[in-house]
Amino acid sequence: MRVDVKFDQLQDALKPMWKYAGARSLTDGASSSYEDEPGIRFDAQDHLLQMCWTVAGDDDFRQTLDEVCMNLNELADTGAAIEVTFYDADFDEEEGAPDTESKDDFLMLFVGPNPAAIMQVQRDLLVQDVINMMERHFDGAELGGVVAEVDKLFAQRFDALVSSLEIGRPPRGSGGGHGGGHGGGRKPRHLH
Description:
The chain is built from six helices and four strands; from the N terminus they run H-H-H-E-E-H-E-E-H-H. With 192 residues, the protein is α+β, with helices and mostly antiparallel strands.
């Protein structure tokens, strides 16, 4: 979290989560359904939000997560990953039919102050995963080329993002050719 973030701001940002859990405040809703999980904790001294929190819910919790991520983007100092696991509470391994599978699901969400910070976290996680997998077969020192290729992919993605954000902006510099003045051509379209 940014150094200026206070508990009240964090409580507002996480409000969709603690409200979903039926709590009246972040303090009331910070505890997990499981005692061995620390729940939701904010370390104001280190500006760190930690979440290991379980709540009963349904598929509609995904909308809550989207809202929380948007809120956390505004408070984040750096990019961060949020790992979410959905457990199928109705599935019973021991008593269920042998051909029945659980509907467990897994989701990775990313937050950050800007797209570059989010992409950096995504890149770092991917590099870590690729290296861990490839070190079974190769020495870590041999994997520099693989990391460079991952970096190229993320650089291309970032360049495409920047380019897409510049669509609809007037060209930089002073210059004509866009028919501004009196009767000098069409009005530019607004892209929405």
